[in-house]
Every structure is written in structure tokens, then in C-alpha cells.
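QA checklist item 7 of 12: single-chain prediction sanity check.
[x] sequence parsed
[x] length recorded as 220
[x] structure emitted
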Amino acid sequence: MRFFLDTANLEELKTGARWGVVDGVTTNPTLIAKEGVPIEEQIRKICDIVNGDVSAEVVATDTDGMLTEGRKLAKIHKNVVVKVPLTRDGIRACSLFSREGIRVNVTLCFSAGQAILAAKAGAYFVSPFVGRIDDTGWNGMELIRDIVQIYKNYSFTTQILAASLRHSNHVIDAAKAGAHVGTMPFKVLDALFSHPLTDKGLDQFLKDYAKAFQDAPVSR
């Protein structure tokens, strides 16, 4: 499974890139707004840091507006994937973009039926929101499993990008379910490193090493 960071913060992206485990980035208008920089400028900077797919979302809600914005976003960098909402207008825009060779991430997916529409429209990614589904009392990971099965049944090439991953178990479960990509906030990626036994084991190794050399006789 590929790891994407769900952020527009350049420092978080630089840290993730240094670790060598970040394969791409997802952004949205909310994340861009937090940085206080025009979207085109920020997307360009992100593409300079991470060499991978970078989702940039349109803010228009009508097909014509999405097409105008999306074409402009796609010209920023070859790694840009245009992000549109899973609405009637969004699916129509996705279908038209796919015919033009523009890759699309269809976002705000909350059902298997919606995921089928995205695949039929030629989406490059579909983004089911696991955490938000969990918030409603349903099982978000079950949706990932359903989409994986349906896409396998019909050999759809759309990649499943598990979104709204809020903790380590979400990431692990998405990988077990067969999601192609997991996108997560920086804090979730950082948490994957952590385990108390790793910290305890490293501390013991260092103590044993120091004791062995402190107790060793000095050669003359």
C-alpha cells in the first residue's frame, strides 16, 4: 500500500519525505486555506517536495466550473491529480477529464454504489472516507472491503484511496482490506513508528552496550 500525507503543510511534507515513506499527497480547500497561500502556489511547492501523485481539489460545484479549474490545476505539474466531489456534476467532469487524459481523484465517497460510478467514469482514484463513516455508526472499513471486491469482480482500474484514516489501526486495516493507497494526517504517519517495546528494547541495548565497554579492562 502506498502512503500519502493528507496535508498542505510544507514542513510536515519535508519531514515525511526525509523518512522516505511518503508516496504522494492529498490536499483539499480546507488544508490549503490553513496555509494562507494561493492554491496554485502551494501545490507547486508541494510538487517540489514530494515526487508522487498530488491531489488538488476544485472548489466549483458545477461541471463547467470544475473543468475550467481542473484543467488549470493539471497544468501546474505533471504529478497533479485533479480532485472532484462525488456528485452528478463531479462524475460528469471526471468522465470528461478522463477522456482528455487528466487523472482524477473522486472524493467524498461514502457508498459502494458511488464507488462504482467513479470507476465507470474513469476515475484514477476513488476516496472512501473511513473515519467519517465510522462517525455515523457504520463500519468504514467494510466499505473499503466492498469496493475492493467489486473492483476485482469487474477489473476496474480505479485505485482505492482510503481516506479519513485517523489512527494506526485504520492504516493497518486498510492495508489488510486491499486499499491501494492510504492517506493520513502527519500525526497518524508519525504514530506508526511508535511501540513501547521498541523504545524499551532500544534503551536496554544501549545500556548493555555502555555497560560492556565501561566494565571492559583498558588495554595498554
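[x] summary fact logged: The mean pLDDT is 95.
[ ] second reviewer sign-off
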